[in-house]
Amino acid sequence: MGLRFRVNLAISIIGLIFVLVTAFILIDDRKKSINEEMEAGTKVTVQLLESFALNPNLASRGNDPSMEFASFLRGVGRVRANEIRLYDSSNELVYESPPSEYKSGRWAPQWFANLVAPARRDFRLNMPIGTIVITPDSSRSVLDAWDELSTFGLILIGFFILLNLTTFGLIGRSLRPLNVISSAMSSMERGDLTTRLPRFSLPEFDSIGYTFNRMASNLEDALTQNARLALVAQQSSDAIMIHDLEGKISFWNPAAERIFGFQSQEILGKAAQLIVPDDLVSEMDVIQDGVLRRKRIEYLETKRKTKSGELIDVALSIAPLVDPVHQEIIGEICAIRDMTEHKQRIAVETELLENRKLTQLIQEKLEEERKSIARELHDELGQCVTAIKTIGAAIANRASDKDLETNKNASTIVEVATHIYDVVHSIIRELRPSALDHLGLEDALIDIVDRYKKQSPDLDVAISFDVGARKFGEKLNITVYRVVQECLTNAAKHSSATRIDVGVGIVVRSQEGDMIRVSIEDNGIGIQSDIEKSTRFGLLGIKERVQAFGGEVVIVNPEKGGTRIEAYIPLHSS
Fold first, then answer.
1. Higher confidence at residue 63 or residue 287?
2. Is the pLDDT of residue 130 over 80?
3. Hey, what long-range contacts does 392-400 have (CB within 8 A, 24 or more apart)?
4. How far is it, in rounded angstroms, from Cα 425 to Cα 389?
5. pLDDT of the residue at 299
6. In the chain, count of helices (H) and strands (E)?
7. CA-CA distance, 303 to 300, in Å (whole number)?
8. How far apart are the first and last CA of the chain?
9. E strand or H helix at 465, and its extent?
10. pLDDT of residue 242
């Protein structure tokens, strides 16, 4: 039974009770009124007839008194609502009043007459002229009451029907938002949490709509957050598991399946000790004791056991699982990170760092050996060649006029010694540029650029320096110099370039800090080499030198053609 029907039924019952009470009051009132009217009419009739029947003149006329009285009654007719019958002294009916012509032929329903009509009784007057019987007739008064009450009843029924129809319509119109609310709740039940109610004209329904929309928004936010948390747990690279205070696992995410090899259906409901090595079971007791004291554990490095029995290095983060209602600890949430690759990476990085240090040490020793060899060549071989050249020149001068053959051989010795001297100085510059020790990095690079210009007149080589890139440490200076030297050599030999631009400066990188940037760009044929996979000794040497300082080398092929090699060296490495 719907609310609309119930409200309408309640109003109908209340209206019916009102009608019945009103009808009872009216009928009772009409009953009393008819009774009083009958008694009053009867009294008036009795008094009238008694006064006329006892008139002494009635018997002195010489006629039969009963006939005279009957003649009087015929003239009077009906006296109000009373029937009058006259009997003579021999009890013969002399006169009977005619029936009432008022609303003749119509009668009130018998049940209504039984309700309102007074008890029918006769009044007998024994007179000298005979017997007069007066019978009150309330049928006309009852009919009048019936007509009045019928009209009033029809009005009440019409009003009752109109009230019901109006109430039914108004309630239906007022309850129309319930259909919208019911539809919205059904949509939400089906999972559509975006459902919202419109504004309603009635403040009660508008308040319900506002509360519903706020509830839907909060529920949508909560479910969205829960979905995100569930998605995070499902897609997390860390193993996440939840177990109760008895140690039984109740949640096991895909990462845990991947790391430990146990599928969810295999491990759910089983003890968490299944993945704990035997010698670390006591560790679990310590952890659980801390959880019971509401302590959190962050990145505890330990070991765990896979399905195959393999021990893996892990880092545990554990937090107590608290019942939000009673604030009691019901278990623990454990995030497990596989540290195997991390430790391997640390080992590789440590080894790489050691290799870089070794490479840097080798480069330093190599540069020291080069410097030592260059010094020996300059001090020993250079002086010997100079002495040979001087002796040869002296011999040539003394034998110029006397012995032409000796002069010629001496001149040859001088030429060869001069060539050897030039070659030695060239080797010395390759081994250890003297300008780098005496003049600094900028002049040393300008010197090497000038030499390449002299060796290749058709090659245009330009160099640019930042102001702050002129004073580095000795190790960085020699590294920058060797990078530029090797790149210029490669470009001059292999690129078929007509122009080479060399740039040395300092750039700022937010993560690495300030870095030295060495750029060598040519307009040649370009190269397609990956610095990590290249087998060229020149590129490998550049990479090893730069990486020894924690830097990187990048090869770029510009759209306009050619090749650009960029070396980035941390400035703090100096």
1. 287
2. no
3. 392/417
4. 15
5. 82
6. 17, 14
7. 10
8. 91
9. strand 460-465
10. 87
- Give me the phi and psi of 156, to 5 degrees please: -65, -40
Q: Which two tokens stand for residue 417?
A: 């010694």
DSSP lists the bridge partners of residue 241 as 252, 334
Q: Give the list of residues 6+ apart from residue 429 with CB closer than 8 angstroms, or none.
A: 451
Q: How far is CA 72 from CA 69, 100, 286, 485, in A?
A: 5, 18, 130, 165
| Confidence tier at 380 by pLDDT (50, 70, 90) | low
Least confident of 18-32, 240-254, 530-544: 530-544
Strand partners, 131: 87, 126
Q: Give the list of residues 6+ apart from residue 229 with CB closer than 8 angstroms, or none.
A: none
Report which of 187, 184, 174 is spatially closest to residue 212, judged by C-alpha positions: 184
Residue 241 contacts by C-beta under 8 Å, 6 or more apart in sequence?
A: 249, 251, 252, 253, 256, 272, 333, 334, 336
Q: Residues with Cβ < 8 Å from 196, sequence gap 6 or more? A: 184, 213, 216
Q: Give dist(CA 454, CA 429) in Å, integer.
A: 15
Please tell me the predicted confidence (pLDDT) of residue 402.
60
Spatial distance between the Cα atoms of 564 and 502, rounded to a whole number of angstroms: 10
Paired with 317 in beta bridges are: 335
The answer to whether 527 touches 563, Cβ cutoff 8 Å, is yes
What percent helix, strand, coil does the chain show, rounded to 5?
60, 20, 25
CA dist 479 and 483 (Å) reads 6
According to DSSP, the residues that pair with 287 across neighbouring strands are none
Interval 447-457 mean pLDDT:
81
What token pair was written down for 457? 């007149």
Please return the burial class of 297, using the count of CB atoms within 10 Å of its CB with bins 0-12, 13-18 and 19+. middle
Residue 366 backbone dihedrals phi, psi, to 5 degrees: -65, -40
- Number of C-beta neighbours around residue 324 at 10 A: 6
Phi, psi of 245 (to 5 degrees): -70, -20
In angstroms, the CA 317 to CA 323 distance is 19
Q: Which residue has the tokens 């006309």?
A: 140
CA torsion angle 43 45 48 51 (round to 10): -70
Q: Nearest CA to 516 among 556, 472, 453?
A: 472
Angle, helix 537-547 to helix 340-376, in steps of 10 degrees: 110
Q: Which residues contact 30 (CB under 8 A, 6 or more apart)?
A: 116, 145, 148, 149
The structure tokens listed for 245 are 């205070």
- Region at 203 (left for phi over 0; alpha for psi -120 to 50; beta for the rest): alpha
Tokens representing 398 are 């003394």
How far apart are the C-alpha atoms of 131 and 88, rounded to whole Å?
6
Q: Compute the distance between CA of residue 562 and CA of residue 559 in angstroms, rounded to an integer.
A: 8
Instruction: Find out whether 433 and 488 touch, Cβ atoms under 8 Å.
Output: no
Three-class SS state of 301: strand
**Among all chains, which residue has been given the structure tokens 């009285």?**
69
Q: Please name the amino acid found at residue 471.
A: K
Whats the size of the chain, residue-wise?
574
Query: Are 242 and 249 a contacting pair, CB within 8 Å?
Result: yes
Q: What is the DSSP string of 97-162?
A: PPPP-TTTT----HHHHHHHSPPP--EEEEETTEEEEEEE--HHHHHHHHHHHHHHHHHHHHHHHH
